[in-house]
Design brief:
α3 (58-77) crosses α10 (239-249) and α3 (58-77) crosses α14 (302-312). The protein is globular, with a radius of gyration of 22 Å. The N and C termini lie close together (4 Å). It has 2 domains: 1-40 and 341-374, no CATH class; 57-337, ABC transporter involved in vitamin B12 uptake, BtuC (Orthogonal Bundle), CATH 1.10.3470. It has helices at residues 15-36, 42-52, 58-77, 85-91, 93-103, 114-143, 147-167, 202-216, 218-237, 239-249, 251-256, 261-288, 295-298, 302-312, 320-336, 344-367, and strands at residues 2-7, 368-373. The protein is 69% helix and 3% strand. It contains 16 helices and 2 strands.
Length: 374
């Protein structure tokens, strides 16, 4: 008797829904069980998670993670596992810091309009992130070194590179004793602030809170919309999108037709990195405003959360916003549940790990079947 593992010839009906549903449900149960060992009442934890789905603060994470989810989806479609979104996200902020604080600081008499500086920051950040991702793609394509450990290592290279710069040449002068860069001038910030209003009706008050969040992060909304349209256009109408999809399933066919799959891998990683860079640049100009020291201790972890967003969407660009909404709510819940000895980042990582563990198991069972031969 022997057991044989075979890829299913026919996809299971509703397999995608099963994978996503079980991953979330069982992953949440595992997370609740783990924090239960730290003394948290499981019912309280589930209540906090449920509330996180209807809080206005989910808007920011939803929009950022949608942008990043679309960015990683492009690489994942080609079976290029770009786990380096975290590093690409933060390295894309470097041009914005240099342009706004040093080259075109309005206090030093900048000669070009703020809009041009913002555009330069976004373009520069996207190009730098694209180059950083292309480096990982080159290592994968020409040296045949797996991109997963490479991109993870490159994340930490970015952490320590930016730490060195913040400690040294980019160290701020007006930081009130904190080790970080100066804050970028307000003229370059992209926030839109609606006034605070007292509204007695709870429903209207909630809707206005949502509207204030959407307005404040309107640059993220525009970025997420552009990312969605771009990904739809690439996979629907371009030869590149067709090649990327084929590369994810049958790269040997592409080679047989004369397509340079090495160059395609580098280009795909670069495109994915450029989209991550767009999100990172907008995040600097809208939310962060400066680079802190010991970045690895203060990161929001968006680059890693975006991996979960892309996978839970099952690489379907139509499901990315829904997946981003779910992950955003779970992240907010992880930062609000009080656990002795565990901070918000640790809880978020436990939650991600639990969901991805179940995702890996259910995805395997959906795509493969185990037969017993005598």
């Amino acid at each position: 008797m022997k057991m044989v593992v075979l890829r299913r010839k026919k996809e299971l009906k509703y397999g995608a829904l099963v994978v996503s549903g079980l991953s979330l449900l069982l992953g949440l149960l595992i997370y609740v069980a783990i924090i239960g060992f730290f003394g948290v009442n499981p019912l309280d934890a589930l209540t906090s998670i449920a509330r996180a789905f209807v809080t206005p603060t989910v808007v920011k994470d939803l929009l950022v993670l949608s942008m990043l989810g679309y960015a990683l989806l492009i690489a994942f479609k080609a079976s290029l596992w770009n786990i380096g979104g975290e590093g690409q996200f933060y390295i894309s902020m470097l041009p914005g810091i240099v342009f706004t604080l040093y080259l075109f600081n309005p206090e030093q008499g900048a000669a070009i309009p703020p809009f041009a500086v913002v555009l330069l920051s976004v373009i520069g950040g996207s190009l730098l992130a694209a180059a950083w991702a292309a480096l990982a793609g080159t290592i994968k394509a020409y040296l045949q070194i797996d991109e997963v450990p490479v991109t993870v290592i490159m994340n930490y290279v970015v952490y320590y590179l930016l730490n060195f710069l913040v400690w040294g040449p980019l160290k701020g002068k007006r930081t009130f004793g904190y080790l970080r860069t100066d804050e970028i001038p307000g003229v370059y910030r992209l926030n839109v602030r609606l006034p605070m209003l007292y509204i007695s009706d709870p429903a209207l008050s909630f809707l206005y809170s949502i509207a204030r969040q959407v307005a404040y992060y309107s640059s993220f909304l525009m970025g997420a919309f552009l990312a969605a349209v771009f990904v739809w256009w690439v996979f629907r109408f371009t030869k590149l999108g067709l090649y990327v999809r084929i590369m994810g399933s049958n790269p040997n066919y592409l080679r047989a037709t004369g397509v340079n799959t090495r160059a395609l891998a580098v280009a795909t990683m670069a495109l994915s990195g450029a989209m991550v860079g767009l999100a990172g640049s907008l995040y600097l100009l809208t939310e962060l405003g400066r680079l802190p020291y010991e970045l690895e201790r203060q990161t929001a972890g968006y680059g890693y959360l975006a991996v979960l967003v892309a996978w839970l969407s099952l690489l379907d660009y139509r499901l990315v916003p829904l997946s981003a909404y779910i992950v955003s709510a779970l992240r907010n819940a992880g930062t609000t549940i009080q656990v002795a000895g565990l901070g918000g980042v640790e809880q978020t990582l436990i939650l991600i790990g639990s969901v991805l563990l179940v995702y890996s198991l259910t995805r395997f069972l959906i795509e493969y079947e185990v037969k017993v031969e005598w």
